[in-house]
Design a protein that fits this description.
Elements lengths: L1 H22 L5 H12 L3 E12 L3 E12 L5 E12 L2 E8 L3 E3 L3 E12 H10 L6 E13 L10 E13 L3 E12 L2 H10 L4 H12 L15 E12 L6 E10 L5 E6 L3 E2 L3 E11 H13 L6 E10 L4 E12 L6 E4 L2
Parallel strand pairs: 9-17
Antiparallel strand pairs: 1-2, 2-6, 3-4, 3-5, 3-7, 7-8, 9-10, 10-14, 11-12, 11-13, 11-15, 12-14, 15-16
Helix pairs in contact: 4-5
């Protein structure tokens, strides 16, 4: 009995010492448990969105957003994102992105990546898939690889976070072209008056005006300082070679001449809701700001002007009423410009 009592007393002493140590803070139990909890957590990925950001003459551009949460007390790196894009379960293309991005400790970072689907691929797939008049069923599936070498307590120094997303792609291929460009001249009397108002003699003004109306070449500086309003007209031809129902809207047009002068043009009409249509465009320019451009059109020599169109399209049948930007620009040969006279 004495031996047993001695053993029990020793045990009680050891227990008392242990609790005394804990209460005195020599062992931070809450910190220890918190550290263990952090090590038990793993990074996570949340795929946020996938949307069409724009169209051009080659294909449809998409942007994807996703969040990665890093629960560790040190920053880690994103090795790379790799994904396959498929349509109707058949692989269309692959992509990689976001290599070397740093993920801050104990935080969440939003990352993005872009990709483009060529119209040629979309139209070819539409031929092989039934009921694909309006859209095609696409999917993106892949993973984000993380480099966890900075987390010293981990034996596994890498981690792969999978993601996937289904999305619809409109069966579309916009085709835009510019036709019938022409410079519309004022009447002969209006031209003579403008030339005389610039300080020209009546004889010289009459001779120059006759050359302009007659389609003859003039000196490159002949219209410098002359206040002469003219019109530039052309047609913008719009067509969807795909089968999706769409709405096309023309927001603005900018003409850049060889001297870098930018002229804003206005369309008489600006919407096409059918598969194809023609928008007549007219604009008033003035030789005070565009004399070189006008002279080049008259002489049919010089650098070709560039037309840039700010447009948008929407696909109401897909529940998309928002206008998606469509970029288009083209050069028009000076030799293509006609010279027309006002009625």
């Amino acid at each position: 009995m004495k031996k047993l009592a001695k053993i029990m007393g020793t045990a009680a002493l050891c227990t008392g010492l242990l609790f005394t140590s804990l209460s005195c803070g020599s062992l931070d139990l809450s910190g220890l448990l918190g550290g263990l909890a952090t090590q038990l957590q793993t990074p996570s990925l949340a795929f946020k969105s996938l949307a069409i950001t724009g169209l051009d003459m080659e294909g449809i551009s998409f942007k994807c957003n996703y969040d990665i949460t890093n629960p560790y007390n040190v920053a880690v790196k994103l090795d790379k994102l790799a994904a396959d894009i498929s349509c109707n379960s058949s692989k269309v293309t692959s992509l990689t992105a976001n290599e070397g991005i740093s993920l801050a400790a104990n935080g969440t970072k939003t990352n993005t990546f872009d990709f483009k689907l060529p119209y040629t691929s979309v139209l070819e797939l539409a031929k092989t898939i039934a009921n694909s008049k309006e859209s095609l069923p696409f999917a993106i599936a892949g993973s984000v690889g993380l480099d966890l070498s900075a987390v010293t307590s981990l034996s596994n120094k890498s981690l792969s976070l999978p993601f996937s997303k289904n999305f619809d792609v409109p069966v579309v291929k916009p085709t835009l072209s510019l036709s019938n460009p022409k410079l519309v001249l004022p009447t002969l009397n209006e031209i003579v008056t403008s030339l005389k108002n610039s300080g020209m003699t009546a004889t010289k003004a009459a001779t120059l005006a006759a050359s302009i109306v007659g389609g003859k070449s003039i000196d490159s500086n002949a219209l410098s300082g002359v206040d002469l309003p003219l019109k530039v007209n052309f047609d913008l031809n719009v067509k969807n070679e795909g089968s999706s129902t769409w709405n096309y809207i023309l927001n603005s047009i900018a003409l850049t001449s060889s001297d870098g002068n930018v002229i804003n043009l206005a369309a008489t009409e600006n919407k096409v809701s059918s598969a194809s249509g023609t928008l007549p465009v007219t604009a008033t320019i003035n030789t005070l700001t565009a004399s070189k451009f006008v002279t080049q059109i008259i002489n049919k020599t010089g650098t070709n002007p560039k037309f840039s169109f700010d447009s948008g399209v929407s696909f109401p049948s897909l529940g998309n009423s928002a206008s998606i930007p469509l970029a288009y620009s083209t050069e028009v040969a000076l030799s293509k410009f006609g010279i027309a006279k006002s009625n």
